[in-house]
Model the fold of this input.
Amino acid sequence: MRCSCRALALSATLTAACTPSADTNSSSAADPSAWSTEGAAPRPTSSAPTVSTAPHRWELADRLSSLRKATPRARSQHLAGEHDAEVLANDEAAAYPALGPQRPLTAGAVLVEALYTAGSSDVALYFAMAKRASAQGGEWEYLVVRADGQVEQRGRLALCERCHTEAPDDHVFGRAR
Done:
């Protein structure tokens, strides 16, 4: 697989920007490192949240082509709007992008933003959100995944959480249908 210098720089920027904050007063009672690849409920913990940076292939990488296209390709709001993107969703995320206070996504929902360098048909990077079961009804795990399916980072990524906490419904930015 071809890897451009721009994609490597983008990956390095994300690795630096998506690090856990020192704030341990988060609303989540789940330790993302306890989330299994099988989607089991996380174990409660009182320790600070952790972020996984160990390289490994994303367990859903081979299923990306089976996800439905939830939005048309348009300019991404991520990474200063320098990329085109389309959002993909699994069946559990069928309510996306038409969300509201009465339509939170259920555990098992996965949303993936495929990022493309403007004008290119090759995916440069994926940003993903996977909703895991928790005592609060559901917690989001955020992932940064390379085009080859290798996870750069996953867990409660501080930069992702900070922005998605401001989303109008269920930590997700949707649009009316």
User: Anything to note?
Assistant: The CA atoms of residues 98 and 159 lie 24 Å apart. The beta strands are 51-52, 56-57, 68-69, 74-75, 83-89, 110-117, 123-132, 139-146, 150-155. The chain has a mean pLDDT of 73.
